[in-house]
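Progress report, Aim 2. The chain analyzed during this reporting quarter is listed below.
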Amino acid sequence: MKKAKLLKKLLAGSKNVSFSDAAAIAKAFGFRLDRISGSHRIFVHTTFPNW
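Predicted structure tokens for the chain:
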């Protein structure tokens, strides 16, 4: 799915989004997968501080 169409789907409030689509949007906004801890995926962004 194209990123623009996917973003519109998310902004419309769709609850039917696959993880791969959500990860693609995160990457499009500059986030990167930092590590995996069990079933959790931790994304980081260089502009935002670690909280």
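The beta strands are 32-37, 40-44. The longest strand covers residues 32-37. These observations will guide the mutagenesis work planned for the next reporting period.
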